[in-house]
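Please fill in the sequence for the structure shown.

STRUCTURE ENCODING:
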């Protein structure tokens, strides 16, 4: 089994102010529009927006295999600056996904990243590889970040 990356990131420049970019990335109900792997997210347990401690259900699907869901929690919600959430649990490790907005004279540099605080157990990593369909999970995640950022950019620059 190949050792997985503990961290990766991708960035893009967007011709829109950080506040607008934050509105898009922190609206998890739109994550299915951005991410090629996420199909849908909905707030749960009375949560209705991006505040620290809010939980949501994320339904995901790779290129093949069954779909799966996780129950992330918002860990950072700083309008115009940063939005992050962690998904963790028994057998699935602990991963934090982060979106950082850096103001630029022409708009915003948006960086999407993940940190593996506790990696997937070997058996689950193997199963995930089979579910998502790619031969390199790290490459799949990196490609997904680039697709996500491009989709956010397209919408942010429309208005």
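FILLED IN BY: designer on duty
SEQUENCE:
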């Amino acid at each position: 089994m190949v050792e997985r990356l503990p961290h990766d990131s991708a960035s893009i420049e967007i011709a829109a102010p950080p506040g607008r970019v934050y509105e898009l990335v922190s609206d998890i109900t739109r994550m299915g529009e951005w991410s090629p792997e996420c199909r849908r997210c909905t707030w749960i347990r009375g949560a209705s927006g991006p505040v620290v401690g809010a939980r949501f259900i994320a339904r995901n699907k790779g290129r093949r295999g069954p779909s799966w869901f996780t129950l992330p929690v918002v860990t950072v919600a700083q309008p115009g600056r940063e939005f992050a959430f962690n998904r963790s649990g028994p057998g699935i490790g602990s991963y934090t996904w982060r979106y950082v907005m850096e103001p630029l004279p022409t708009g915003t540099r948006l960086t999407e990243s993940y940190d593996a605080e506790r990696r997937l157990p070997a058996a689950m990593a193997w199963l995930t590889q089979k579910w998502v369909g790619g031969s390199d999970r790290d490459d799949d995640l990196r490609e997904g970040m680039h697709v996500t950022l491009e989709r956010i950019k397209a919408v942010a620059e429309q208005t």
